[in-house]
Amino acid sequence: MTIILPPRTALVYGETDVLVAGGGPAGIGAAVAAARSGRRVMLLEKRGFLGGNITAAYVETCNHFMHHLSFQTSGIWAEMEEGYRAQFGRSGDIRPNAPHRFSSEYLKIFFDAFVGNAGVEICLHSFVNEVVVENGVISHVVIQGKQGPAAIKVKQVIDCTGDGDLAFAAGAPFDQGRDRDHRCQPGTLNFRIGGVDAAALVRDGNDQLKELNRRFREDYRAGKTGLSCKRQDIPMGRLTENGLVSYINYPCAYGVDPTSFADLTRGEIECRRYIPELCAYMKENFPGFEKSELVSIAPEIGFRDSRRIRGDYRLTIDDVLSGRHFDDAIAVYPQFYDMLSPDANMNEGSPRDAGYNGYICSYPKDGLNFEIPYRCLLPLGVENLLTAGRCISADHVAESGIRAISACMYTGQAAGTAAGLALQNGVNPRSVNTTELREKLRAQNCIL
Ligand SMILES: Cc1cc2nc3c(=O)[nH]c(=O)nc-3n(C[C@H](O)[C@H](O)[C@H](O)COP(=O)(O)OP(=O)(O)OC[C@H]3O[C@@H](n4cnc5c(N)ncnc54)[C@H](O)[C@@H]3O)c2cc1C
After folding, report:
1. Which residue's CA lies nearest to atom 16 of ligand 1?
2. Which end of the chain is more exposed for a tag (fewer CB within 10 A), N or C?
3. Structural domains in the chain (count)
């Protein structure tokens, strides 16, 4: 059943050249790049802080799978990493040989200044899922504020909401989850514990978290854990000098549609239920965890995939695995896919199964990269809209590679640069000269 809502009046809060929706890695890359092109930029974020999944879902060990690769991070991502390290160092992380990680709490503080200093107008607590479209062009984006709707007049829009909320509102077609049943990867509610005996967990300069995960998986598969959550792995991201284990990536809810508030409610509550059970298990079974206690639960359940907005090109897993070259490539990234089974199936799946037969994962090998074409960022049917991050145009398995946090910032940087270029040349993003775009990205130290 549906009802017709009465027409409303919205306050026109302001206007901007480029409006970026979503302040995660993609949105940060997009907003900073667009602002540096000399444009007026507003960044709208529904939460009270920036960072997206890194800060809101505690995904603090972003590039762990790139350890030992010669692949160089570049562009705004590399600048951000360096700036964070200079200001906050290792944040008490005691794993000396591991790739750099973040404390998501310090990162929130860092992003305020990093994005603000680029000249971006940051609007927090600004949920957006409504647009005014005239002849295929978005004229206004509407913030759902506590004082009522507030409209922003826009020239270019970049959707970095992860869920493609603005593209969806503008009527762009999309795919979601596996083709057959639209099931996404599970939602995960990460958490932190304190009071772990850090010294007891370090041997020869390396912590034992990976080893604990290996044993846990064996025990889970042998039916020995007695835990009710269906996740069989327990990746743990950071161990600090003071005995904090941050980013415990375990409680998972399966069959959750990330765009349904009813499903999200079920997922949050289900995941929280698993946490005390797991804490008790770790105290009893993990050496060094005897005196541990729950410290915090991530602000929100996190998702690895959601709507993938159909664009002028749909990146496929074959493109990723063959390292296909595109003349309009705007990002290069190590060949990689990592897709948790939407069914909690314990088999080892393969990319060809498209998620129907278990966990699909391949970590990058040195020298094997893939390219992301600009056309994946151009949603069908809307002229002044770009997407960036995990909601760009890709098949389900390919998305599990492009969803990597630093890759999301690369597509964000490309989208922000393209929006600036479109305004400079008086065209829409679809007509941007991609040779010029690639030159501009190279001039920003992006390795293409
Ligand atoms: C448990 C978990 C573990 C992961 N592990 C890794 C890992 O180890 N390495 C890795 O590289 N990646 C990992 N990922 C994937 C990675 O976190 C995401 O793919 C990445 O953060 C996507 O970036 P994004 O900017 O596209 O979207 P997001 O990070 O989701 O950011 C979207 C932003 O938009 C905001 N937003 C959403 N809707 C609206 C709206 N309507 N209005 C206003 N604002 C809105 C959100 O609040 C958020 O800040 C993991 C993800 C999860 C959930």
Report:
1. 405
2. N
3. 2
